[in-house]
């Protein structure tokens, strides 16, 4: 017989009621985050915390216990998307053709923002206490600025375009309101194509989709999308 009897893991010694309480807390947190992501995507980040608590089926006290401030909830809800956005820019930087890399970044990021009103608002909002979120955004913007400079140096991007112009394009794209996610993506792709043509340096006879010698970008645009009028207030 062993002189060292096996001992139960610490969680097995924890009272059942305590384990259930901890499990409920995790479930509440995930439910709050899921509701926040869905609601922010549809309505933006100005939705009141009490409304989010109601939709999640928890009391305001429970919500504030998990997320003491709106800033904490917003940055946690969009942390993964911010990391995805930064990764998209990194992929653009890795493209051996910086103008192609920048075009791809614009197209992909515009689709992300067209599908989620809240992410755009989170992206352009300062959150002083959300260090990780802010650092990821700073990294993405720094990489985007580098890609912009490379695209200029390579002759694909107009010399008078800067980082603020690209942010303005993203913000304008987020204003697209469509009848369905599919329509939003289609409209975003056309909008991005229009902006890319405006951003392209001229003349660009050697660029894909450009008629040699004309100095004008004639790449075909994605199909037009009919967008619905806003509902009366």
TrEMBL record:
<dbReference type="InterPro" id="IPR001647">
    <property type="entry name" value="HTH_TetR"/>
</dbReference>
<protein>
    <submittedName>
        <fullName>AcrR family transcriptional regulator</fullName>
    </submittedName>
</protein>
<feature type="DNA-binding region" description="H-T-H motif">
    <location>
        <begin position="48"/>
        <end position="67"/>
    </location>
</feature>
<dbReference type="GO" id="GO:0000976">
    <property type="term" value="F:transcription cis-regulatory region binding"/>
</dbReference>
<dbReference type="Pfam" id="PF00440">
    <property type="entry name" value="TetR_N"/>
</dbReference>
<dbReference type="InterPro" id="IPR050109">
    <property type="entry name" value="HTH-type_TetR-like_transc_reg"/>
</dbReference>
<keyword id="KW-0804">Transcription</keyword>
<dbReference type="GO" id="GO:0003700">
    <property type="term" value="F:DNA-binding transcription factor activity"/>
</dbReference>
<keyword id="KW-0238">DNA-binding</keyword>
<feature type="domain" description="HTH tetR-type">
    <location>
        <begin position="26"/>
        <end position="85"/>
    </location>
</feature>
<keyword id="KW-0805">Transcription regulation</keyword>
<dbReference type="InterPro" id="IPR049445">
    <property type="entry name" value="TetR_SbtR-like_C"/>
</dbReference>
<dbReference type="InterPro" id="IPR036271">
    <property type="entry name" value="Tet_transcr_reg_TetR-rel_C_sf"/>
</dbReference>
<dbReference type="InterPro" id="IPR009057">
    <property type="entry name" value="Homeodomain-like_sf"/>
</dbReference>
<dbReference type="Pfam" id="PF21597">
    <property type="entry name" value="TetR_C_43"/>
</dbReference>
